[in-house]
Specification:
The complex is a heterodimer of chains A (about 280) and B (about 290). Chain A is an all-alpha fold. Chain A has 2 domains: about 1-40; about 40-280, MetI-like fold (Orthogonal Bundle). Chain A has helices spanning about 1-40, 45, 60-90, 95-110, 115-125, 135-160, 160-170, 175-205, 230-240, 250-280; strands at about 50, 55. In chain A, strands 1-2 form a two-stranded antiparallel ribbon. In chain A, strand 1 (about 50) and strand 2 form a beta hairpin. Chain A is globular. Chain B folds into 2 domains: about 1-35; about 45-290, MetI-like fold. Chain B has 13 helices and 2 strands; from the N terminus they run αααββαααααααααα. In chain B, helix 1 (about 1-35) packs across helix 13, helix 5 (about 100-115) crosses helix 7 (about 145-170) and helix 10 (about 200-215) packs antiparallel against helix 13 (about 260-290). The chains are: A mainly alpha (about 280), B mainly alpha (about 290). At the A-B interface, helix 1, helix 3, helix 4, helix 5 and helix 6 of A face helix 1, helix 4, helix 5, helix 6 and helix 7 of B.
Chain lengths: ~280, ~290
């Protein structure tokens, strides 16, 4: 018996050590970026375009570009994603069509981001002749974030008790009225959580925007959806690989802004989830 | 009443259409990649593309042998998986069964933070810190090599492996655990001999999804593996993966050229590989759920 206890102690200590090996680099990575980047962050850095071959100045156009791309992606992926999930949960029977949709969602989520980049390029930029522009990039990111939105919306809808629907239907409401007024409002927090989460991923992605929208250096702001923009992740890629003698603090600060942006979006989704879970009565 | 019926019909059509769009995208991705990949084989033999040992897209005549890139991907992926599977599954075991509740929340939050760090940021850290560090440690000619990529990719695959393995471990029925405890097994014996084997298919799915994530990752490998499209002889040398080749060369090609088609063919191969991996993972997940 005591030998079994000793084994357990050793095994648990080993597992704790492994966990430490996993967790320590996460903390160190964050600290490394924060400490090296914080010094170069200022209001000017956030509000000025890059200057002198990007070795000076700020990241304003890239920041704006990334925000525009996220907004554009959301405009498209949110309605399609929510409707597709509503179809799967509320309307579809377990038939060939609905199983095909589920299989498609699984497949979409497994496709590498660079493939989305190729797809966006050949479809939006070349085939539909949008050119390298915000529209092409946002659509590419939208398709990429679709699986997460559908999956989380599906879960949120499934969490609404069946009795809600039955009562609404028994009062004479139609199917859509039931979904619109009885199911969707209760599933909203879950849907928002998923949406914000998927968009925070889209915000950090570089590969899908490489050939569809990202501009190497473009200090002025876009005037229409058919303009190119700079984007934060691509900007970081450019200044850390393509610009010789790049002052490191600027690169670190750019990385820090990107991490903070993504992190804030995650935080919003966590707070939303937490806030609404508390209010739930069932 | 009549108007309401029309609204209802229109909205239901929209809902159905959205479902159809999801299927449509998968089909479109395949079709459009095929459309731009297949023309390559009209001018360049498919056998030479698949088994060719040289990737020289701008030489005269150009050579599009995919083997160096495929091996580059395999090298980096194998390296990453060796590192992250034991670490990931171990950490998942600790989080699921050993850690007290408060620590559990902190650990899970940290893993989620890791999942949210953009890959380009990790690539940047690879360039400024990890690459030079490994160069000094192993006395390498350059720190931009397969190993740097493997380490960073292992780090990136950890969240996938940990969270899905943890799900699998937690969802092992309580009764199994209690039966083991009732027979006098320690917590470790129960974890090692009962819970882990019961969660095996879920953990396998986690590993497959991790592999899928690693093999499809682009920015990190493009930034830190040195971009040398040659048959890799060691993980300590520069190499180049399928993904990095597409990302790095697409900007230089003329649309409709042989090189352009070749890059789409590389994309098609990558898509098929990840498709098979994910299919396998999905089958395993289904098995785990039963």
């Amino acid at each position: 018996m005591s030998r079994a206890r000793t084994t357990q102690k050793i095994a648990f200590a080993a597992l704790a050590a492994i966990t430490l090996i996993v967790v320590a680099p996460i903390v160190l990575t964050i600290l490394y970026i924060v400490f090296n980047g914080l010094g170069a962050i200022s209001w000017e850095f956030l509000s000025q375009p890059p200057r002198h071959g990007m070795r000076e100045g700020g990241i304003f156009p890239a920041l704006v570009g990334t925000i525009l791309l996220i907004a554009g992606a959301m405009l498209f992926s949110l309605p399609v994603g929510i409707f597709a999930a509503v179809y799967l949960v509320e309307y579809a029977q377990d038939n060939f069509f609905s199983r095909l949709i589920k299989l498609s969602i699984v497949n979409l989520s497994g496709i590498p981001s660079i493939i989305y980049g190729l797809f966006g390029f050949t479809v939006f930029v070349v085939f539909l002749r949008f050119g390298t522009c915000i529209l092409s990039g946002a659509l590419t990111l939208a398709i990429m974030s679709l699986p997460v939105i559908v999956t989380t919306t599906k879960e949120a809808l499934e969490a609404v008790p069946r009795s809600f629907r039955e009562i609404s239907l028994s009062l004479g409401a139609t199917k859509w009225q039931t979904v619109r007024y009885c199911v969707l409002p209760h599933a909203l927090p879950g849907i928002l959580t998923g949406t914000v989460l998927s968009l925070s991923r889209a915000a950090g992605e570089t590969a899908p925007i490489l050939f569809t929208v990202a501009a190497f250096y473009l200090p002025r702001l876009p005037r229409s959806v058919f303009d190119q923009v700079m984007a934060l992740p691509y900007h970081l890629y450019v200044i850390s690989t393509q610009v010789p003698n790049m002052p490191l603090p600027i690169s670190f600060a750019t990385g820090l802004v990107l991490v903070v942006l993504v992190f804030l979006m995650n935080l919003v989704s966590i707070v939303l989830r937490w806030h609404y879970r508390k209010k739930k009565q069932w | 009443m009549f108007r309401r019926k029309i609204t209802e019909t229109v909205i239901e059509a929209g809902i159905k259409l959205s479902g159809f769009i999801c299927i449509g995208f998968v089909v479109l991705v395949f079709l459009f990649l095929l459309k731009d990949a297949l023309p390559l084989f009209r001018v360049y033999p498919a056998g030479k593309f698949l088994w060719g040992l040289k990737w020289l897209p701008v030489s005269e005549p150009p050579q599009f042998g995919m083997m160096p890139l495929l091996l580059g991907s395999v090298y980096v992926t194998v390296g990453a998986i060796f590192l992250c599977v034991p670490l990931g599954v171990g950490a998942a075991m600790f989080i699921a069964e050993v850690a007290p509740k408060s620590l559990k929340h902190v650990l899970k939050a940290l893993v989620e933070i890791l999942a949210s760090i953009p890959s380009v940021v990790l690539g940047f850290i690879g360039i400024v810190w990890l690459g030079p560090f490994l160069k000094n440690m192993f006395g390498l000619a350059t720190g931009m090599c397969g190993l740097t990529g493997s380490l960073l990719l292992a780090f990136m695959a950890l969240p996938t492996i940990i969270s899905i393995s943890e799900d699998a471990l937690v969802s092992v029925p309580r009764s199994c655990k209690e039966a083991a405890y009732g027979l006098g097994a320690t917590r470790w014996q129960t974890l090692w001999r009962i819970i882990l084997p019961s969660a095996a298919s879920g953990i396998l799915a986690a590993i497959m999804l991790g592999i899928g994530r690693v093999i499809g990752e682009t920015m990190v490998v493009m930034m830190v593996t040195g971009n040398a499209p040659v048959i890799p002889t060691s993980i300590l040398r520069p190499l180049r993966t399928l993904t990095a080749t597409i990302a790095g060369e697409m900007g230089e090609t003329v649309s409709g050229s042989e090189h352009y088609f070749a890059l789409f063919a590389v994309g098609l191969v990558l898509l098929i590989i990840t498709f098979l991996i994910n299919l396998f993972a999905d089958v395993m997940l289904r098995k785990a759920r039963r």
